[in-house]
Design goal:
- 47% of the residues lie in helices and 12% in strands.
- It is α/β, with parallel strands linked by helices and 399 residues long.
- It has a domain of 175 residues: Nucleotidyltransferase, domain 5 (2-Layer Sandwich), CATH 3.30.420.
- Strands 3, 4, 5, 6, 7 and 8 form a six-stranded mixed beta sheet that branches. It has a two-stranded antiparallel ribbon with strand order 1-2.
- It is elongated, with a radius of gyration of 40 Å.
Length: 399
C-alpha cells in the first residue's frame, strides 16, 4: 500500500498542473488598431511605435515575433536549464526524489521508476535533516513556501520578458493628426513622411509627376485668354520692413502659359528683401521695369478679363489697381475650397496639397508657379464656380 502523504502530493500536483493550463492559455487574437492618442503618455507611445517601425524596416525584419511566442521560448529555455527531478519509491517503500542521474543520497546507483513527469517546481527532498521521514505538517508548510517563491519568480520573469519583447508596431497603428508630411520629413526622416503621406492619401501617380506637367497644359495657346491668373512678389520697406511694395508681377493664361513676367524697380528704399520667401535679390529689382510702366501694362491685360489668384486684394493693393468684384476669382475666399480643407483662410500651399496632390512653395516662392497653381484650382471648379457667381449677381439684380 502506498503512503498517505503520497496521495495528497499527487492531488496537489494535479491541481497545480490544472491551474497552469487554465492560466497559461493561448494569447488572444491581435488587438484592433489603436485609437488616436489623447493623453501625453499616448502621444509618447505613438512616437515610440513610429521609431520601432522605422528600425524594423531598416533591419528588414518584416515578421516580428509576438509577445506570446517570445515568452514561450524563454520559458522553454528556463526549464531546460534547471535540473529535472523524478519522484520514485525505494526498496523500503519510502518516497524519495532522485535527480535524473538516478543516484540516491548515499551515492549508490538504484534503478527507480518515474511516477510523474519531470517538473522544475517539485521539492528536492521529503526527508528531514536526520534522514527520517518528515511529518505531514512540516512538509506541507515547506512545499507551500517553495511553491509561492517559484510562482513569484515565474511572474517576475514573465513580466520582464513581456517588457523587452513587445510586438513591433504596424503602419496602421501609427497615427498623425493633420501633420504636414514635410514637417515629419524634416523632424524624423523620409520614411516616416512616406508613411504619413500614405495614411493621408497623398501618394498618387499625379504626385509623382513634375509640377510643370500638372500646372501647364502642353501644346496649348500661349496668348491671352478670357481668364488670367496673377501673382506678385513683394519686398519690405520702412524702418522694420513691415510695409510692402511690388517687386515682381507674373500673369499666366487659362492653360498655365506665362504671358507676362517682369521685375519692378523699387519706388522706395528696400529694408527687407524677404529673399527666403519672395526669392527677390537686389540685382533682380535694380535693373527692373519702372513701376508706372508695369502698372499700365498689367491694367491693360486685366481689362475685361476674369482675374484669378490667391489673396488678390494684396496683389491689387501693391499695384494700386482695382478690378470689378464680379470678375475676381480668389481661391482663398472660395467657400467650397474652405469647406474641403476645413480652414477659414487656407494657404495656396494647403489647397494644392489637399486638392491637387502637389507640393508648391517648398522653398523660395515663384510668382509664375503660384499664378499657375491658382489657375489650376480655378479650372478644377470652373463650371460650378461660374454658375455660383452668375446666380449670386442675378439674385442681387432681381432685388
Amino acid at each position: 500500500a502506498e503512503p498517505a502523504g503520497l496521495g495528497e502530493d499527487r492531488k496537489k500536483k494535479r491541481r497545480r498542473r490544472k491551474g497552469r493550463k487554465a492560466g497559461g492559455g493561448e494569447a488572444q487574437g491581435p488587438a484592433a488598431p489603436a485609437a488616436p492618442p489623447r493623453s501625453p503618455q499616448e502621444f509618447s507611445s505613438n512616437w515610440k511605435a513610429l521609431q520601432e517601425l522605422l528600425k524594423q524596416k531598416e533591419n528588414g525584419s518584416d515578421k516580428p515575433l509576438s509577445t506570446c511566442q517570445t515568452s514561450t521560448k524563454k520559458k522553454q529555455l528556463l526549464k531546460a536549464g534547471k535540473s529535472q527531478e523524478v519522484a520514485a519509491v525505494n526498496g523500503n517503500g519510502n518516497v524519495v526524489h532522485s535527480k535524473s542521474t538516478n543516484k540516491t543520497d548515499s551515492g549508490s546507483a538504484k534503478d527507480s521508476l518515474p511516477l510523474s513527469k519531470p517538473k522544475s517546481t517539485e521539492v528536492t527532498t521529503d526527508k528531514n535533516l536526520n534522514g527520517t521521514k518528515s511529518n505531514g505538517k512540516g512538509c506541507k508548510a515547506k512545499k507551500k513556501n517553495d511553491i509561492l517563491k517559484e510562482k513569484g519568480d515565474i511572474k517576475h520573469k514573465r513580466r520582464k520578458a513581456e517588457e523587452h519583447t513587445e510586438q513591433q508596431p504596424t503602419e496602421a497603428e501609427i497615427w498623425f493628426d493633420d501633420v504636414d508630411p514635410k514637417d515629419i520629413e524634416a523632424a524624423i526622416g523620409p520614411e516616416a513622411a512616406k508613411i504619413a503621406r500614405r495614411n493621408l492619401g497623398l501618394e498618387t501617380d499625379q504626385s509623382k509627376q513634375s509640377l510643370e506637367q500638372v500646372l501647364v497644359k502642353e501644346k496649348a495657346s500661349e496668348g491671352l485668354t478670357r481668364a488670367v491668373a496673377m501673382d506678385c512678389e513683394m519686398v519690405g520697406v520702412g524702418p522694420k520692413g513691415e510695409d510692402s511694395i511690388v517687386a515682381r508681377v507674373s500673369i499666366v493664361n487659362q492653360f498655365g502659359k506665362c504671358v507676362y513676367d517682369k521685375y519692378v524697380k523699387p519706388t522706395e528704399e528696400v529694408t527687407d528683401y524677404r529673399t527666403a520667401v519672395s526669392g527677390i535679390r537686389p540685382e533682380n529689382i535694380k535693373t527692373g521695369e519702372d513701376f508706372k510702366t508695369v502698372q499700365k501694362e498689367v491694367a491693360n491685360i486685366l481689362n475685361g478679363r476674369i482675374l484669378v489668384g490667391h489673396a488678390l486684394c494684396n496683389d491689387l493693393k501693391v499695384l494700386f489697381l482695382d478690378h470689378p468684384k464680379k470678375k475676381i476669382r480668389d481661391t482663398q475666399r472660395y467657400k467650397p475650397f474652405k469647406q474641403r480643407v476645413k480652414h477659414s483662410r487656407p494657404s495656396l500651399k494647403l489647397l494644392c496639397e489637399k486638392l491637387l496632390n502637389i507640393q508648391v512653395q517648398t522653398s523660395e516662392h515663384c510668382s509664375i508657379q503660384d499664378a499657375q497653381a491658382a489657375m489650376k484650382l480655378y479650372t478644377l471648379e470652373k463650371k460650378k464656380w461660374e454658375a455660383a457667381v452668375k446666380n449670386k449677381f442675378n439674385n442681387k439684380s432681381s432685388k
